[in-house]
Automatic annotation (TrEMBL):
The lineage of its organism: Bacteria, Pseudomonadati, Bacteroidota, Cytophagia, Cytophagales. It comes from Larkinella punicea. Residues 11-122 form the PIN domain. This is Putative toxin-antitoxin system toxin component, PIN family. It holds the Pfam family PIN_3. It comes from the Bacteria. Signal peptide: none annotated.
Length: 144
């Protein structure tokens, strides 16, 4: 029987905007991964990510009221440390906006980025940071 690698409580994780949307708008698998990580690891985000999330949640397809968007923002601020990266913005991702996710990961020396974004997933790693989908992270580190 294969033993799954365990992660320390000091593990640092950055979630991409699309995983936040899946977590809070379509609660299901991504929410389970996010909740597990919030209890067991150190989570980081940035004002840029929170602003992008608020902008996307404001789109008609998500039907998120201002009150709901504010509540989601508050939950994330409770679960994640908000940082203000002052390092140069990386330029390695096909989608320039995704470089902001990489910047946060670089700034906090993240172990993982959890994302559903193909542009980020195709990188596989960025410096020391592994880039995984919620499913990959679950299969490697959570599933018993």
């Amino acid at each position: 029987m294969e033993t799954r690698p365990s992660l320390l409580a000091s593990t640092v994780i950055v979630f991409d905007t699309n995983v936040f949307i899946s977590t809070f708008v379509f609660p299901g698998f991504s929410a389970k991964v996010h909740d597990f990580c919030a209890v067991n690891f150190q989570l980081f985000t940035s004002e840029w990510i929170l602003n992008e999330l608020d902008e996307k949640l404001g789109l008609p397809k998500f039907r998120c009221s201002i009150e709901r968007r504010s509540a989601i923002n508050e939950i994330i601020r409770i679960r994640h440390q908000v940082v203000f990266p002052d390092s140069e913005l990386p330029t390695v991702c096909r989608d320039a906006d995704d470089n902001h996710i990489l910047q946060v990961a670089q700034f906090v020396d993240a172990d993982f980025i959890i994302t559903g974004d193909r542009d980020l997933l195709d990188l596989i790693t960025f410096e020391k940071t592994q880039i995984l989908s919620p499913r990959e992270f679950y299969n490697r580190y959570i599933q018993q």
